[in-house]
Amino acid sequence: MREIHPGDLDDLARGAGILGTGGGGDPYTGKLLAQRAIREHGPVTVVGIDEVPADATVVAISGMGAPTVSVEKLPACTEEVTALRALERHLGRAATHLVPIEVGGLNSMAPFVAAARTGLPVVDGDGMGRAFPEAQMILPGLIGVTVAPMAVADDKGNTLVIDGVSDLWSERLARTACVEMGCSVSCADTVMRGDQLAAGLVPATLTLAEDLGRTVREARAAHADPVASAARLLGGVRLLTGKVVDVRRRTSGGFARGRAVLEGTGGDRGRALELSFQNEHLLARRDGAVIATTPDLICVLDTDTGEPVTTEGLRYGLRVTVLGAPCDPRWLTPGGLELAGPRYFGYDCDHVPLPTA
Amino acid sequence: MREIHPGDLDDLARGAGILGTGGGGDPYTGKLLAQRAIREHGPVTVVGIDEVPADATVVAISGMGAPTVSVEKLPACTEEVTALRALERHLGRAATHLVPIEVGGLNSMAPFVAAARTGLPVVDGDGMGRAFPEAQMILPGLIGVTVAPMAVADDKGNTLVIDGVSDLWSERLARTACVEMGCSVSCADTVMRGDQLAAGLVPATLTLAEDLGRTVREARAAHADPVASAARLLGGVRLLTGKVVDVRRRTSGGFARGRAVLEGTGGDRGRALELSFQNEHLLARRDGAVIATTPDLICVLDTDTGEPVTTEGLRYGLRVTVLGAPCDPRWLTPGGLELAGPRYFGYDCDHVPLPTA
Q1: Is-contact A139 A49, C-beta < 8 A?
Q2: Under an 8 A CB cutoff, do A176 and B177 touch?
Q3: Closest-CA distance of chain B to residue A250, Å
Q4: Which domains does chain A have, with CATH numbers?
Q5: pLDDT tens profile B238-265
Q6: Tens of pLDDT along B101-127?
Q7: For labeling, which of A36, A316, A331, B122 is most exposed (least CB within 10 Å)?
Q8: Prediction ipTM score
Q9: Contact (Cβ atoms closer than 8 angstroms) between residue B60 and residue B101
Q10: Where does the S-Me-THD-like C-terminal domain lie (chains A, B) (predicted)?
C-alpha cells in the first residue's frame, strides 16, 4: 500500500504509455487530468492485489472512444464518477476498490481521477497487461467475469447501464452509444470480487509502468539509450529504428484505425516496417513479412527520448523505434487468441512469435 | 374497470391503427401478439385514469424502431417484461400500472402483452392521442415528466437503462441502441405517478380506439361507408379519396421515411395528394398546397373496408381515403408544436388548420 502524489504520475504515465502499445489515450493528457484530481481532492492509495479483501467489490474504470477524439475533446473528469455511481446504483452496493481495465496513457490514469474524487483505493494491476481497443478483450473474461453490467457516462451527464447478453454485445452497445455521445466517454464495468483478482488481472502493472517510466527517464538523464533500457525491462526486441514516412488514419466506428509506414535508418537503412492499428498497434510487417502480431505488445517509442508515441501521435518525419514485447501468457491460450488474436481483427494470419534479438 | 379478452382486441387494434396515423406498428401483428399473451396468461384489466391511485407507479410500455422492420422481425414478446424489470430495478420499486405511450397498431398492444405476463392493469389513455416517431414527443413532457429513466430490451435479452440529460438525449441514445439491436426493441419509460395522469395523458384513448374499430366494422357489415363513420367519430375531414400511384420509402436512422403520391378518383379525379412520413404521416400536400400537418392526425384508410393502412403498408394501386383529424389541443400550444410541429421535422411551414369539410 502506498500513496500516489501528483509527482509520482510522470513516470507512471510515461511507462503506461509505452505498455499501451500506441493506444489507451494520450499519456500527457492523462497525467494532467489525474494530477489535477489529486491536487484538488488529495492523494490516491494504491494497493497490491494481495491486499484486497476476498469480498471486495472491485470496479474497472476506463475511457472508451477514439484517441484521435480524446486529444481534442478532453474529459470533464466528472464522467468517471458519474459512471461509477450509475453502476453502483444498478449493483445495489458500493465499490470498495477501483482498477484500470488496461494500461495506457489515459486509461491507466482514469481510475486515479475517480479514486481521488471518491477516496477509493486503486488496485495495482489491470485486465490486459497492455491496452486493447474493445471492451471484451480482457483477461477477467477468461475466468468468467463479464464486462456487464457496464455503466457509460459522457461529459454532458448522460448515463447508460448496459447489460449485454455477452461481452461482445456489451461492447457493441457501448460503442454505438460512445459514438453518439461524442466518441469519448467513461465506463465503469467488469465488477470483480477481491478473490477473483489474482486469476483475473495482470498483477503489479502500475508498478511496472512506473519502473518503465523511471528507467527511460534515468537512461535519458545519463545520456544512455532510453529505448534499449525500456526493451530490457520489457524483455522486448527491437523491430526497427527509422522514421515515419506515411500515415493513413481515419476515425471510424468509434476507433482510430490506420496504417503507418516506417523507413529504416542507421543499421536499419533499406528496411521498411508497416504498422496496422485500431487504437492500438496490432500488426507489424517488416519488409513485407509479419514479424509481430497482437496480442504481443508492439510499442513505438521516440528514438531519442524513449517517450511513447501513440497511434494518434504518429506523424511524418517522426524518428521512432518499434519494440516487440511478449504479452501475458494467458493471451496466447486458445481463449485469449480468440478474444484478441490477429484473426479477430480480420488479419489473415496466426499469431507469430516475436523474433529473437 | 373491465377485463380485456382476446376477442376484444379486434376492434381495439383496428381503431388504434387508424389513430396511429400510419405508424405505431402493424395492427394485425400487434393484435396477434396481444391475443396470444392473453390466451397464455389470462385476461388484462383496463382501468380508467380516475381509478388509478395518486401514488401509483405508472410505466409506459412501447416498441421502438422502424415499422418496416417490425413487420418482418416479430418481437419475441419477452422484451416488454425484460425492459420493465430493468426499469423497476433502476427505480428500486415495482410498477403498479402500465400504459401505452402512444396509440398505434403495435404500440397500443405492447402494454397488453406486458400486462398479460405480469398481471398488471393497463390504464385507458396514452401519452399522445395518436402515434409519433420519437420518444420525446409526449404530452407528459409538457408537465415535466421525463422519458428517462428509460429501459430498452431486445429479443436476445440485451438491456440498457438510459438516463439522458434531456428527452432528446434519451431518444438519441435509445435510437442508436435500437438500430444496433436490430431496429425493433421494447421500451419501458416515462414513469408517472397516478396523480400526474390526468394532466399528462390523453384520457380514454383505448376506449376511443375500440369505438372507432367497432364503428368501422359495423358500417362495413351494414354496407354503409366505413370511412365516413370513422371520420364522424374522429371529427375528421376527408382530404382525398384515390389510389396510391407512387411510394418512395427507405429505412434510415431507425425510422421508415418516405413519401407517397395519391391520385384522386371519383369526385377527386384530377386531384393529387402527397403524403410525407417518418413512421407516421406528418404532412399532406393537396395539389401542391399543404393542407394538413403534424401534430394533427393524417390517417390513411382502405376506402372499401375502412381498415387502417400503415406507412409500411402503402403500395402502388391501393385504393385509400386520407382523413385529417384534430389532435389533442395541447399539441397546438407552443410547447407542443416545438416537440412535434412541422418545423421540428424539417418542414418549412407552420401548422395549418385542417380544411373544413
Answers
A1: no
A2: yes
A3: 21
A4: 2-203 (3.40.1610.10), 226-340 (2.40.390.10)
A5: 999 999 999 999 888 888 899 999 999 9
A6: 999 989 999 999 999 999 999 999 999
A7: A316
A8: 0.89
A9: yes
A10: 166-354
